[in-house]
Amino acid sequence: MHSAFQGVLLGLHTIAVMVWVGGLFGKYVFLRTAANELDDPSKLLLWRKALQKFFPWMSAAMLVALVTGYAMVFTVFGGLAAAPLYINLMQVIGVVMIALFVWLFFVPWREFNYDIEAQNLSAAIANLKRIEKIVLASLLLGIIAVAINSTGAYW
Question: DSSP of 68-118, one letter per residue?
Answer without folding.
Answer: HHHHHHHHHSSSTTTS-HHHHHHHHHHHHHHHHHHHHHHTHHHHHHHHHHT
